[in-house]
């Protein structure tokens, strides 16, 4: 196979596997002052039957409700990547710093550390107050009391996030793919089999098989829809004027308008907003579809305009055949983008309701979209697994392809 002949693949796979082992070790070790023998059985008994807590447990890789050294896994790094572009728009200096690669990494690292400290502080306050899980009293699961417990737990969570920084950098430089994407997929996948087994114990093997089939089918279709949305584009033919001695044959012949930049994010937000509601299935699915579609349209409207690149090209002796230059060209491109936004909204709504439909067909969806009495196998869980899988596999394949191209040109130059 060409993939196995990639130079240095074995070493990079070993580095990635080693990083995964260290990461999961950090999510298994308890924070200082925590009694894992008392907290573990409570979490194992409560989380499988609680939809929202089960979903949070799935997203954090089982670390948050067990007060692990890495309670949130790589979620602070993931949220930092989302917050940094938004913060850069608020201040010119942040925007200038983000424009440089080293500056962007610095902003993301500091934002991730701040999020880890803030999340650790909130988690410590909740645990010290005894509200982490039903039946998990502070005096039973914590060896420390009062403000000292809050300080120790928050400092431990922040230290875990700080330790994760060099680990992700080491995996990025010497491993395969994007470390954050790979570790996110690992931490989600680590909890999924346990939740499936909990479904089996509660509903029997037949119910477990039905839910597993529904999850796998909806997962495959969701991944296909998201990939189609990310890869799909509307190619607008362009032509070059003879000004400036240009050679049209060496230039780009079209302007690509991408169908979807956001993938499953608006769908996940919509499902999470509707998760606490108890509605009949049909109104639930209809409102969920409308909210996800509206979120996709809002993201298109708020986000960066895709007309920036076409307008830049049209200022460099480029024109669209059959369309008048100037205002008519901009209106034509805006009309195309509106059509793409409608298609993206419909696809996002379908992605949001598809897992709930699959679970309902399997006979395991409640009115809130979760399976079998509140298990975390609703739309958000499936979308979370799908997004993590797409990002992890995509980053790994991109890294492999880049290494193969570099080796090819290095061999030719030698």
Q: Could you walk me through the main structural features you see in this protein, from its secondary elements to its overall organization?
A:
The chain is mainly alpha-helical. It folds into two domains: 175 residues, Preprotein translocase SecY subunit (Orthogonal Bundle), CATH 1.10.3370; 238 residues, SecY subunit domain (Preprotein translocase SecY subunit). 68% of the residues lie in helices and 3% in strands. The protein contains 14 helices and four strands. The strands form two sheets. It has a two-stranded antiparallel ribbon with strand order 1-3. The protein has a two-stranded antiparallel ribbon with strand order 2-4. It is globular, with a radius of gyration of 24 Å. About 5% of the residues have low confidence.
Q: Judging by the overall fold, what is the CATH architecture of the largest domain?
A: Orthogonal Bundle
* Helical content (DSSP H or I, runs of 4+): 55-70%
Determine Rg (CA atoms, Å).
24 Å
CATH topology heading of the largest domain: Preprotein translocase SecY subunit
The separation of the N and C termini measures 25 Å
Core attributes:
mainly alpha, two-stranded antiparallel ribbon, 14 helices, Preprotein translocase SecY subunit, 414 residues, 68% helix, single chain, 2 domains, globular
């Amino acid at each position: 196979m060409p993939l196995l002949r990639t130079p240095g693949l074995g070493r990079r796979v070993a580095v990635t596997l080693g990083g995964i082992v260290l990461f999961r070790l950090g999510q298994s070790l308890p924070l200082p002052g925590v009694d894992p023998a008392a907290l573990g059985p409570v979490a194992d008994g409560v989380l499988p039957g609680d939809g929202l807590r089960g979903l949070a447990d799935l997203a954090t890789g089982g670390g948050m409700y067990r007060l692990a050294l890495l309670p949130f896994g790589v979620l602070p790094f993931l949220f930092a990547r989302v917050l940094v572009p938004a913060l850069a728009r608020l201040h010119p200096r942040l925007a200038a710093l983000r424009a440089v690669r080293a500056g962007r990494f610095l902003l993301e690292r500091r934002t991730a550390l701040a999020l880890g400290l803030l999340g650790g502080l909130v988690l410590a306050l909740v645990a010290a107050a005894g509200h982490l899980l039903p039946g998990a009293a502070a005096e039973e699961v914590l060896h420390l009391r009062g403000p000292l417990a809050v300080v120790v737990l928050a400092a431990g969570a922040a230290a875990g996030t700080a330790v994760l920084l060099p680990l992700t950098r080491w995996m990025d430089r010497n491993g395969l793919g994007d470390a954050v994407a790979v570790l996110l997929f690992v931490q989600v996948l680590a909890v999924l089999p346990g939740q499936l087994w909990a479904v089996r114990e509660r509903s029997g093997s037949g119910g477990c098989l039905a839910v597993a089939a529904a999850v796998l089918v909806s997962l495959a279709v969701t991944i296909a829809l998201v990939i189609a949305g990310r890869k799909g584009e509307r190619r607008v033919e362009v032509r070059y004027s003879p000004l400036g001695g240009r050679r049209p044959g060496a230039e780009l012949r079209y302007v690509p308008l991408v169908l979807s930049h956001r993938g499953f994010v608006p769908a996940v937000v919509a499902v999470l907003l509707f998760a606490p509601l108890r509605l009949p299935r049909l109104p639930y699915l209809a409102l969920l579809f409308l909210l996800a579609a509206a979120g996709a349209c809002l993201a298109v409207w708020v986000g960066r305009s895709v007309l920036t690149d076409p307008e830049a090209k049209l200022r460099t002796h480029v024109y669209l055949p059959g369309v008048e230059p100037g205002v008519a060209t901009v209106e034509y491109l805006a009309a195309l983008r509106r059509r793409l936004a409608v298609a993206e909204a419909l696809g996002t709504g379908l992605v949001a309701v598809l897992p709930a439909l699959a679970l309902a067909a399997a006979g395991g969806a409640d009115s809130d979209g979760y399976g079998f009495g509140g298990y975390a196998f609703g739309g958000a869980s499936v979308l979370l697994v799908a997004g993590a899988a797409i990002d992890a596999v995509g980053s790994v394949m991109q890294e492999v392809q880049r290494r193969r191209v570099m080796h090819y040109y290095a061999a030719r130059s030698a």
